[in-house]
Design brief:
With 344 residues, the chain is α/β, with parallel strands linked by helices. It has helices spanning 12-23, 87-100, 140-144, 205-213, 218-222, 266-285, 293-320, 324-334, 339-342; strands spanning 2-8, 28-32, 44-46, 59-69, 75-85, 104-107, 111-115, 118-121, 124-133, 152-161, 169-173, 183-190, 193-200, 225-235, 244-245, 248-250. It binds flavin-adenine dinucleotide (FAD). The site of flavin-adenine dinucleotide has 39 residues, from helix 1, strand 2, strand 10, strand 14 and helix 6.
């Protein structure tokens, strides 16, 4: 059977694209290499996009404040509006929506090759008019199409239980000794539990995470039960040089859509999935694949400016990570909750 669209990856980018295109009556196949949704993630989602959470039971905590710590542990508070979700359940909700709209998801099916007019996976070949690469930071769709590896940060996280997190507050720590090139996060998931993780651009994230948790003064607050260890990566090199080529679109992390400074990528993956879905429907309705290039134009219009700024800040961050003194002095210019980040 020929599909109208083959989506590689059932993360937020893939499932949102698939649901939208399937809801317009087109035949959509999703190939997902895992047997269920389980992208490693801290699950903080800011409430600034027009998107309804598929199921309220996925929300682990409501967030109203971000507290950012300088290396000397002085801090800056910023009001915001978001929530922490159970990422596997959140993604499964989006995948279920795609299935309800008529998309077929083949679990445990990994893309192996792009072939003329379709894709090859372990169990066979599927033909499709349009291919959507929504297969994350190490996108096989992109590498098979000749794209270079993206710059990425690596992360490690525990879900700690029996601890005392600050309620409704995401905590972010900048310190060269605990998170070179990145930061440590504590995201509450309940009264006595939180996801505590670290993202770094060099070294082993788990070693840094252990060091943070077991150091004074954090041990006092974080010496609880370690559960659910996860590790993963996210792109920090900004948008790829091309997001659409021929009948292939790259969406979400596979296209470099996580913020190069914060690493947040869920909202952009959803937003890009919606834009990809709408553009694909337009192209299929008019049988004109040239229309697909509108996807890239729209994404660049939305993300190029903030990403240009974030990439400049990323460069400065890389320099400032040479010492805690530099970080201490320059953090307000480098982190999104400070007014100085947005100046000029
Ligand atoms: C530890 C960690 C914490 C994070 N915390 C946050 C956070 O709090 N907030 C936030 O906004 N962002 C966070 N991010 C980033 C966020 O997870 C990503 O930006 C987001 O998941 C991107 O969605 P996506 O759909 O593009 O890709 P993904 O969610 O990565 O989904 C890609 C899917 O493709 C599948 N796949 C991969 N290769 C193949 C293949 N060859 N064939 C078939 N399927 C394949 C994968 O199994 C996966 O299901 C975090 C990332 C990490 C690593």
């Amino acid at each position: 059977m020929e599909h109208d669209v083959i989506v590689i990856g059932a993360g937020p980018a893939g499932s949102v694209t698939a649901a939208l295109v399937a809801s317009a009556g087109y035949r959509v196949l999703v190939l997902e290499k895992n047997t269920s949704c389980r992208s490693p993630c801290a699950g903080y989602i800011s409430n600034n996009i027009n998107f309804e959470i598929p199921d309220n039971s996925v929300v682990q905590s409501r967030i109203t404040k971000m507290r950012t710590y300088f290396p000397d542990l002085s801090f800056h508070d910023f009001e915001l509006n978001g929530f922490v979700v159970n990422r596997s359940l959140f993604d499964m909700g989006l995948a279920r929506k795609a299935i309800d709209e008529g998309a077929i998801i083949r679990w445990g099916s990994s893309l192996q090759e792009l072939v003329t007019g379709g894709v090859k996976f372990r169990e066979g070949v599927a033909m499709g008019k349009i291919i959507v690469g929504a297969d994350g930071v190490f996108s096989k769709t992109a590498s098979l199409s000749g794209f270079k590896k993206q710059r990425f940060a690596v992360c490690a996280q525990y879900h700690l239980k029996g601890i005392n997190p600050l309620s409704h507050t995401c905590e972010i720590f900048f310190n060269q000794e605990y998170a070179p090139g990145g930061y440590v996060w504590i995201y509450p998931t309940g009264k006595d539990s939180a996801k505590v993780g670290v993202g770094v651009t060099q070294g082993y994230p788990r070693a840094y995470l252990e060091k943070f948790i077991s150091s004074t003064p954090f041990l006092e607050r974080l010496g609880g039960r370690k559960t659910e260890y996860i590790t993963g990566a996210l792109p920090i090199g900004g948008l790829r040089e091309k997001l659409c080529y021929g009948n292939v679109l790259l969406v979400g992390d596979s296209a470099g859509m996580a913020d190069p400074v914060t690493g947040a990528g869920i909202n952009n993956a959803i937003l890009a999935g919606e834009i990809a879905g709408k553009t694909i429907i337009k192209a299929l309705e008019s049988s004109d694949m040239e229309i697909l290039s509108e996807y890239e134009t729209k994404i660049r219009r939305l993300l190029e400016r903030p990403f240009t700024r974030a990439l400049e800040k990323r460069k400065m961050l890389d320099v400032c990570y040479a010492s805690n003194e530099l970080l201490q002095e320059n953090l307000p210019e480098l982190w999104v909750t400070f007014r100085q980040y947005w100046n000029n």
